[in-house]
Design brief:
Elements lengths: L9 H23 L2 H36 L1 E5 L14 E5 L13 E5 L15 H9 L9 E8 L4 E4 L6 E3 L2 E2 L16 E4 L4 E5 L20 E2 L3 E10 L5 E2 L17
């Protein structure tokens, strides 16, 4: 009740406020007590979170597949033919732009498909569907047994011979000193003299005593590798942690080789 001068009676105001407050408290309690509302909001939050995770995973798979198809591909090293450069169980990344936009050079370590049977008859390994899918999209290294890895010694047009009086391999008549060869091993115990045809390569393993390379397959297309079979150039050791690093190509070893022998 208001007084004549326009001010409100305190007692009346107090009673008026007391009459409104219980209703407000009951309304808040009713809102908080709606279990269906809370459940709906929780379900929406969980679905939003799941959609975000699925979207991120999908983008990662697509990016991995694109990188593996056009730029880099992972491989697993199963043998010691490239020791000490590459060791058994190393995981490597191969640059798919070589050859292609970028050319091959002597000294490059390349992975190539075994289209000529260098590996002989190999039993088909059982492929775990999950591992197969992850390898397909590029998330794990390709562990198939149908690829080899060797170092390029001769390019198209090169003449590669073994050996001079000091036991060194000659490329276009120029002897090369090979620091990447397995310590204590000779550059080659097998004599050979070849001229590399167009679109071919002459390749050797760094562990010459444990590598069945071009020297031992002269009965199969002269021991040459088709450039078209090359998957790419090995650039990085990605695993194990203690061996992560760049794979040396040793182009300087071939610096004195006459350029007119290159294809």
């Amino acid at each position: 009740m208001s007084k004549p001068d326009g001010t409100e009676d305190p007692a009346a105001a107090h009673g008026h406020r007391q009459g409104r407050m219980p209703g407000r408290r009951r309304g808040r309690r009713a809102d908080r007590g709606t279990g269906a509302g809370r459940g709906a909001r929780a379900a929406q939050g969980a679905w939003g979170w799941l959609k975000e995770i699925l979207m991120i995973a999908g983008i990662a798979l697509v990016l991995s597949f694109v990188i593996k198809t056009f730029f880099f591909r992972a491989f697993y090293i199963p043998s010691g033919s490239m020791e000490p450069t590459l060791e058994v169980n190393d995981r490597i990344f191969v640059n798919l732009l070589v050859p292609g936009p970028f050319g091959l050079e002597r000294g490059d370590v390349v992975v190539f498909k075994d289209t000529k049977g260098w590996l002989g008859e190999t039993a088909a390994a059982e492929v775990n569907p999950v591992s197969g899918f992850l390898a397909f999209v590029g998330l794990v290294p390709d562990s198939s047994q149908q690829h080899l890895v060797k170092r390029v010694i001769g390019l198209p047009g090169d003449t590669v011979e073994c050996c001079d009086a000091d036991g060194r391999i000659l490329v276009n008549g120029e002897p090369i000193s090979e620091p990447y060869v397995w310590p204590g091993a000779s550059p080659s115990d097998e004599e050979f003299s070849v001229t590399v045809p167009q679109d071919k390569l002459w390749v050797l393993g760094d562990h010459r005593d444990a590598s069945a390379d071009s020297r031992y397959h002269e009965d199969i297309d002269g021991g040459f590798v088709d450039i078209g079979d090359v998957e790419g150039k090995t650039t990085v050791i990605a695993w194990p942690l203690g061996r992560i690093g760049i794979v040396a190509d040793y182009h300087d070893v071939f610096a004195a080789v006459p350029a007119d022998g290159a294809g």
